[in-house]
Design a protein that fits this description.
mainly alpha; single chain; 40 residues; elongated
Amino acid sequence: MEKYIPVLKKTQLFSGVNEEDITTKPPCSTATLKKNKKGS
């Protein structure tokens, strides 16, 4: 997750949010990163 912080900070959603707040996720957050093959 930490390697994505610079990218996230450039988005409108996370602009002005510090790194600690981005990396601290609430217990109800279940976001995951999935990679799919093209055409799947």
